[in-house]
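Practice problem: predict the structure.
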Amino acid sequence: MPSRGTKRVVTAFSQFVGDERTKSEVLVMDGGTGSEISKHCPNVLSEDSWTGAAQLKIPEVIQAIHTDYINSGAQIVTTNTYASNKHCLAADGVAERAIEANQIACAVAKRACKVKSDGNVFVFGSISTHPPCFKEAVQAATEKIANGGGEEARGVDCVNATSGVGGWPCRDQELENFRDQAGALVAGGVDAIALEMCKDLYHSSLVLQAAAETGVPVVLGITIKLDEQGQVYLRDERVLVADALREFLHLCPTIVAINVMHSPAEYCSAGLTAIREVWQGTIGCYPNNGTPSSWPNWSAGDLGEQELVDYAEQWAQQGATLIGGCCGIGPSHIKALADHFKDSKQTGGGCTEEASIFQVEEKTLEHQQSVPQSANNR
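Answer:
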């Protein structure tokens, strides 16, 4: 169960997303954490868990990334825990440190928030449906398709490395791993749990169940694909987004917002329209920019700052009030968004490029002052 202090923070966020004011004011999220790590410390990337274990090695760099986004105007930072569960960390040989990895990620994110004296920065705790042994899973799915079989390996015009392919644990163990991670994030004081890249029914349903059991607000991030007719599907399964959301909302009554995420910016407007078929609450977008063309390195795309702002204005007109980015969206993109939406009462100012945390502070932070002691896994 969350601590008393955590409940107080969680309640504040619940009230925030329910406030009449926030129905028209845009709250600027951060950009990609993993893609920024790949720029600054590519040696810590993993073919399997990507940056899931990075905080065990470079907590000071991750804190600096969060700080850079906050200085750029972000009012939400997301913990570097996208793939920090036991089944994702197993191939890296650190499954037993999953709770510790989530603790450290929460600690560095919360410390980064202290750069804002007004305290108006929320911390979202990330959990995803990232497959274990990711590179192997992609290869296996690709081979099945090439050999004319494996319908489970086909997404909507894309290779599906999530559903039915890869070294997933059994259902009960996968759910328990998600429960452990969700519990660690809540204990770490996150304001909400952000479920990222929910793109199929099976694994998304398990992560939704685990998040719902905590009782804290859940921000659901769905990854989408459009077919030639413009129909909006979950990316890894030929299920219409509206149909999937009906099931997801039933599984997790603590959902307070639904975002289109890790999808091309040009898909997001259609995604918002699909969400509105079944959900009238808070909505948002945080698209990606580029591709993992040389996994685990991320190759940034050509989505410029002004182009993102132009898209964001359209999303805001559709009712989106949570806007940021994920892979390939950096601090300069977030500063452009924050500057554009600066009339929002909550949106803070940005810093200039010259004031980037990576340019003004290269020294390693005091690790011993910030990293909590390891906790035993259940």
